[in-house]
Amino acid sequence: MILPVIENRRSVREFSAREVPEEALLDLLRAAQFAPTGMNNRAVEFLVLRGREAKEKLFLLLEPKQPFVKEAPLVIVPASDRRKLQIPEPNRSIVAAADLAIASSFIMVQAVSLGLGAVWKHVMAEFTPRVAEAFGLAPEFLVINAIPVGYPARQPEPHKESEFSPARIHRERW
Question: What is the spatial distance between Cα 17 and Cα 130, in angstroms, rounded to a whole number?
Answer without folding.
Answer: 28
